Every structure is written in C-alpha cells, then in structure tokens.
C-alpha cells in the first residue's frame, strides 16, 4: 500500500464496555417496564459505549457535505445535468438546500467541501475549496481517479473527521452532492458485494425504467472493463468511486479510529461506509444507519454491513438529509436516558418478579 495511505490501517477505537454496563444498569432502573422503549434502549447503551460515558448526548453534531462531479455523467446516467452539482454547493452555503435548513433547525454545524466540480464555486463564502480536478474521469474509459486524487480525497475526509473530533463533536454526519453519484455508488456496491448491476442500480435523482436499465448496462460494461483490478477495495474506490465518496470513506475510517460515532445517511453514504469497512475492517462498529433509502439497492448494502436503519420514510435525497432527520431521535434517546426518574427516585414499586 502507498505510504500516503498507511493511516487507513491504524487501529479502530474500542467502545467503552464499562460505560455500556452502567448505561444498561440505568435503563433497568428507569420508571418503565424493562425493554418498553424498544430499540431506543439499546441505542442509549451503544451511544454510552461510544461516547465513553453512562449518560451520552447528541447535542454537538457536525454535518460535512463533500461535493464532486462525475465523468460518467456523459453516459446519460442521471436525470439531471452536471451543472446542478456546483449550483447546489452554492445553495448549501447560501442556506436554501434541504441540508442547510435541517442543519439550521437542528443547531448542527454544517461544513461544505468542494472536491471537484466542473463549475467554479470558489467565490462562495463558507465553501472549503479543495478541488482535485474538474470532476472524476468517466469510469467507462479508465479509472475515475488517479492514485494521487484518491489519496487526496481520502485525506480530505480524514482531515474533516479529525477536525470534528478535535472540536468535541459527539456525532458525525457525512453528506454528499454529485450528479451521477448513485451510478458510482451502485458500481462500488456491485463490485464490493459481487452483486449484479441490476441489483444495485436505481432511479437516483429520477431516471425512468428505461434510464435505470441503461444505467445498469453502463455499470456492467465498467465492471467488465476494470475486471480483476476490482479484487482490491482501494482499486474499486479509485476506479469506480468519486471524490466525495472517497472522502466520505476516509472520514468514516477516521471517525472509527478516533472513536467518533457516525450517523450514516442513505445509499451513497452507505456505499462509502461499505468501502470504509473493506479498507479498514471493523470500522462499521462505529456506524449507525439513519434511514432506509428509497433507492432499491440500499437494502443489499445495509445487509452486508448488518445495518438496521432507524427510519424508513421513502427519502432519496442525499446531502446527509436522512441522517439529519434521524438526529432528533438520537437526541430523544439521550434525554430520555438521562432525564427519566428511577423507580427508587420516584418511589414506585419495581417489577414483582
Ligand atoms: C436538485 C438536486 C439536489 C440534490 N441534492 C442531492 N441530490 C442527490 O442526487 C444526486 C445523485 O443522483 P443521480 O446519480 O441520479 O444524479 C446526488 O447529487 C445526490 O446527493 C440532488 C439531486 C438534485 C437534482
Ligand atoms: O439515498 C441516497 O443517498 C440518494 C438516493 C438518490 C439520490 N441521491 C441520494
């Protein structure tokens, strides 16, 4: 492995089992029938282990949206033109995008990083410009990224996660913007899972049935073209991924190495989570899956990660929006866990037997 990438092999943090035990003991003492809060109870215990405290919180949250364009859009794989990527980056900063509204409403920090749009966003205040090129290359013709671009995209993610961890952030949310990136994510998923392109390709931002069929065909040709190189997950990411997907994978690995829990968004973020797990086994022990995307291939990737989404709202937006929508649930998990009275405090008789 290239020495620039050695950090990918650093050890994954271990959750604090003692904090988990204390949180489980507290859950058993709260004034409710044991188990009556269902999955919320296990979530409180997991958050306790991750945050190394019997009373976890979900107050300080940072959403980092990575953006990049995709050369494969020239194959007609998206219902929208490539120029939408840069236009949306502007909107993230100006406050009009879904994720901007969600971040504002939730009091979450929003960081926007442009890793390579075809169109300029350099003058937009609030967007970190780290462009590695004018989008990736069309992966039907060659690798999407050079080795250097892959290393820099992974590192951009690593640095963003390290900044969040150093700033005392308690939960990390990754988001993405990149017209064509459901094609890249589906190709990644197919290559990493050994699934057919048809099982992973879906409408994305709005393809019709014929469009989905063509998208699967493009992915099939790409898998054939890159062939045996796809046995190596790093090569899968370099050949089929995107700048924003690689950055997400890098961020997720770093979060796990630093002990910062990740609330994973939909289809594209889950593809990045799967790539992260293949690059650095066991990082997924730090991931929670926010929602079941309407993109049909999502379920297969979740199954491979043994992930059970918190919500199922038919969302298919990306940007980190599904994770943001799930955040209030985690906040309620924490406030219930910390704020409810125990049987002893309330003077209520506990379970008889
Ligand atoms: C206006 C608009 C805003 C978006 N925000 C996220 N996406 C989402 O759609 C894109 C992926 O879909 P596909 O692979 O089909 O192009 C990504 O940018 C994703 O974040 C958007 C898409 C559009 C059109
Ligand atoms: O679930 C997602 O992340 C998604 C689905 C469709 C389009 N963009 C994003």
Automatic annotation (TrEMBL):
Keyword field contains rRNA processing: no
InterPro entries xref list: Nict_dMeBzImd_PRibTrfase (IPR003200), Nict_dMeBzImd_PRibTrfase_bact (IPR017846), Nict_dMeBzImd_PRibTrfase_N (IPR023195), Nict_dMeBzImd_PRibTrfase_sf (IPR036087)
Molecular function via GO: nicotinate-nucleotide-dimethylbenzimidazole phosphoribosyltransferase activity
Pathway in which this enzyme or protein is active: Nucleoside biosynthesis; alpha-ribazole biosynthesis; alpha-ribazole from 5,6-dimethylbenzimidazole: step 1/2
EC number: 2.4.2.21
UniProt keyword terms in alphabetical order: Cobalamin biosynthesis, Glycosyltransferase, Transferase
Active site as annotated: 319 (proton acceptor)
S-adenosyl-L-methionine found in the keyword field: no
SUPFAM superfamilies: Nicotinate mononucleotide:5,6-dimethylbenzimidazole phosphoribosyltransferase (CobT)
Catalysis performed (reactions): 5,6-dimethylbenzimidazole + nicotinate beta-D-ribonucleotide = alpha-ribazole 5'-phosphate + nicotinate + H(+)
HAMAP family with a match to the protein in the record: CobT
Chain's role: Catalyzes the synthesis of alpha-ribazole-5'-phosphate from nicotinate mononucleotide (NAMN) and 5,6-dimethylbenzimidazole (DMB).
PANTHER family per UniProt: NICOTINATE-NUCLEOTIDE--DIMETHYLBENZIMIDAZOLE PHOSPHORIBOSYLTRANSFERASE
Family: Belongs to the CobT family.
Protein name (Swiss-Prot/TrEMBL): Nicotinate-nucleotide--dimethylbenzimidazole phosphoribosyltransferase
Organism field: Methylocaldum szegediense
């Amino acid at each position: 492995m290239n020495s620039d990438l050695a950090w990918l092999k650093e050890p994954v943090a271990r959750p604090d089992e003692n904090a988990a035990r204390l949180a489980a003991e507290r859950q058993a003492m709260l004034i409710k029938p044991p188990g009556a809060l269902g999955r919320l109870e296990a979530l409180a215990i997991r958050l306790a282990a991750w945050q190394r405290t019997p009373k976890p919180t979900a107050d300080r949250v940072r959403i980092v949206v990575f953006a990049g364009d995709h050369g494969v859009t020239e194959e007609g794989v998206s219902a929208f033109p490539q120029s939408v990527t840069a236009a949306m980056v502007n909107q993230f900063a100006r406050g009009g995008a879904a994720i901007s509204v969600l971040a504002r409403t939730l009091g979450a920090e929003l960081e926007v990083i442009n890793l390579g749009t075809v169109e300029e966003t350099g003058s937009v205040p609030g967007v970190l410009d780290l462009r590695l090129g004018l989008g990736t290359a069309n992966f039907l013709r060659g690798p999407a990224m050079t080795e250097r671009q892959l290393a820099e995209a992974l590192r951009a993610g690593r640095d963003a996660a390290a900044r969040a961890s150093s700033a005392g952030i308690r939960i990390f949310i990754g988001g993405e913007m990149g017209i064509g990136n459901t094609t890249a994510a589906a190709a990644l998923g197919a290559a990493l899972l050994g699934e057919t392109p048809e099982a992973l390709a879906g409408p994305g931002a709005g393809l019709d049935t014929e469009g989905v069929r063509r998208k699967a065909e493009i992915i099939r040709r790409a898998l054939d073209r890159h062939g045996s190189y796809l046995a190596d997950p790093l090569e899968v990411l370099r050949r089929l991924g995107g700048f924003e997907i690689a950055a997400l994978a890098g961020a997720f690995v770093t979060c796990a190495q630093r002990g910062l829990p990740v609330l994973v968004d939909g289809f594209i973020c889950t593809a990045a989570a799967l790539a992260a797990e293949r690059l650095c086994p066991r990082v997924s022990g730090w991931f929670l899956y926010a929602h079941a995307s309407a993109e049909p291939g999502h379920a297969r990737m979740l199954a491979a990660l043994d992930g059970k989404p918190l919500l199922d709202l038919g969302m298919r937006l990306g940007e980190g929006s599904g994770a943001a929508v799930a955040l209030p649930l985690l906040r309620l998990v924490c406030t219930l866990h910390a704020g409810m009275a125990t049987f002893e405090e309330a003077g209520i008789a506990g379970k008889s037997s």
